[in-house]
Design brief:
Length: 136
């Protein structure tokens, strides 16, 4: 019986190899703006709001919505768990206002999920308009 499972796995691996190669070549041709947009889908937004509601730290919430690279850049100089500004000096993040709005909403226990989704959508628009800052 285990041999049949191994054969089935091997067949599925060999079928997937050709499709991986073609999707990789398509990815390399996509623009950086498209690459950012792909990581910020509606399902990722919903998942990040669920994490927020369940009390996950801010870096996990933003990482789910934007990917870990964008979240780390966004939270530079901030407390990773709460999103509050802790560094000395000025915040150079071009999405500072949107992030502060989101952190404020996130810290309020009475905030509805739809309000958080709207705040994440505003953050997404800002990230898409500033791809050079976020390294995408």
């Amino acid at each position: 019986m285990p041999r049949e499972d191994e054969k089935r796995r091997e067949r599925s691996r060999s079928k997937g190899k050709g499709s991986r190669k073609s999707s990789h070549s398509k990815r390399s041709r996509s623009s950086s703006r498209g690459a950012i947009h792909k990581t910020m889908s509606a399902s990722r937004t919903r998942a990040s709001v669920h994490k927020l509601i369940s009390g996950a730290p801010m870096n996990a919430v933003l990482g789910t919505a934007f990917g870990s690279g964008v979240a780390a850049k966004m939270l530079q100089g901030r407390e990773y768990k709460t999103g509050q500004w802790t560094a000395v000096g000025e915040d150079s993040n071009p999405c500072k206002k949107e992030l502060d709005d989101f952190v404020s909403l996130a810290s309020n226990q009475l905030t509805e999920a739809t309000t958080c989704v709207k705040a994440i959508e505003h953050l997404k628009k800002c990230v898409l308009t500033n791809p050079a800052y976020f390294g995408k």
